[in-house]
Amino acid sequence: MIRRLALVSGLAVLSAVAFASQAGAQAVPQDVQFGGNITGTCTFTGTTAGTLATTGVNNPWVEASTGTTIGTIGTAGQTTVNCTSGGALSVAAPVRVAAPAAFVDTIKQAVVYDATANAFTSAGAPFDTGGWTKPTTALTIPANTNRVLRVGMITGLNTIGTGAVPSGTYTYRVTLTATPN
Known about the structure:
Helix content: 10-25%
Number of strands: 11
Largest sheet: 6 strands, antiparallel
Distance between the termini: 86 Å
Number of domains: 1
């Protein structure tokens, strides 16, 4: 009988311990939230400088247009742009860095040509009412697509036959701005 009592008492104690531990070991879920504001980015790669040249006759301007479909004087610069979320590309008018003091650059115009989209954007005073007349609206850059852009420019006076370009070193800067969507 003592054995039975010991067995029953032992079972009672074990049951109490087993049920008590089960009651205290309930699963408690906890969610961990994640968030962030991911913004698009635009990058330029493979940028090469353009080369300014003159017509070689009595015309007072220099340009870099070969590669833009506008002309064949000088060589347009080139760059590749990629915007992760798409974007818009604008251009600023050329800025004189160095040129002979006698060079008059009243008119300054930059153009950007996207051959893939056959589209232009430009900035600065239009050099003429012909080939250099281009829209000033920003170019659309599709998402995650490398777009090769040709950057041309012209500066001087649009007065044909009124004087040669002074000899010397010419340096101009054209700034492109890619804004992600």
